[in-house]
Amino acid sequence: MTSITATPEKPAAAPDYAAIKQRQQATWASGDYTIVGTTLQIVGETLAEAVDVRAGERVLDVAAGNGNATLAAARRFADVTSTDYVQALLDKGRGRAKAEGLDVHFEVADAEALPYEAGSFDVALSTFGVMFAPDHASAARETLRVVRPGGRIGMANWTPDGFIGRLFKIIGTHVAPPAGVRSPALWGTEAHLVSLFGPRASNIQVERKMFSFRYRSAAHFVQVFRDFYGPTHKAFGALEAGKQAALERDILALLNELDVGKGRGLVVPSEYAETVITVG
């Protein structure tokens, strides 16, 4: 009898997070995120209210993008530090703050390795930002670390089954996401949030909310996102003409399925999770 010894499978190699983040930086610097990002300002305002940002509190906006949560906190007279790993996005936020006469400190920083002492802030905020960090555990750990005990973390994250979550899935069928990296939309699920923050949180509150994308038409939405929204801009750019047309058809179909505008402009509700975490 011949015995057969099974060869153990090699463990999957860990993702090259540094390389992934380099590509992400190029993605978010492409197009002009501000064109899309400023339409989401109301989310920053409602998040600042949910977290109960107070005047004089030290607030950190993590992966701030063009600064929606930054401006919301600064309008409430908090002491705000706005961070992102893309300088071009911070420059847009700086311009917006200057136009409103708001005093904000802007600094390039990686959400997975924040350059601040433990407990430096009373509040950390992120609107559709930290959820895109490829190493979820590191980003959550760093956000928790820089907030003092008893402080709060407020986040707005797209859910997997909402419009943007479904849009990500469509893009992923046409342009494969980085191997081994978990979907950013997991940040919109309570189970994932509890797994990331639960051991250090004294309280986690998650509320499902809707933001409505409003454009002239489905075709107008596709054009704006194709030209200005980094992930969509890069996805189209990675495809040849025929495959670009297929991606466009799939996005248009999703938009037309979810449109509640009744022919008077495109109105597409998109679910997100508004989360408030109290640090233990």
Using brief descriptors, characterize the structure shown.
single chain, 280 residues, alpha/beta, seven-stranded mixed beta sheet, 11 helices, 7 strands, disordered N terminus
Describe this structure in words.
The protein is an alpha/beta fold. About 40% of the residues lie in helices and about 20% in strands. The chain is built from 11 helices and 7 strands. It has helices at about 15-30, 35, 40-50, 70-75, 85-100, 135-145, 165-175, 190-195, 220-230, 230-235, 240-260; strands spanning about 60, 80-85, 105-110, 120-125, 145-160, 200-215, 265-280. Strands 3-2-1-4-5-7-6 form a 7-stranded mixed β-sheet, with helices on both faces. Helix 5 (about 85-100) links the parallel strand 2 (about 80-85) and strand 3. Helix 3 crosses helix 4 and helix 7 (about 165-175) packs antiparallel against helix 11. The radius of gyration is 20 Å and the shape is globular. The relative contact order is 0.15. Mean pLDDT is about 95; it is low at about 1-10.
Describe, in short, the structure shown.
Strands 3-2-1-4-5-7-6 form a 7-stranded mixed β-sheet, sandwiched between helices.
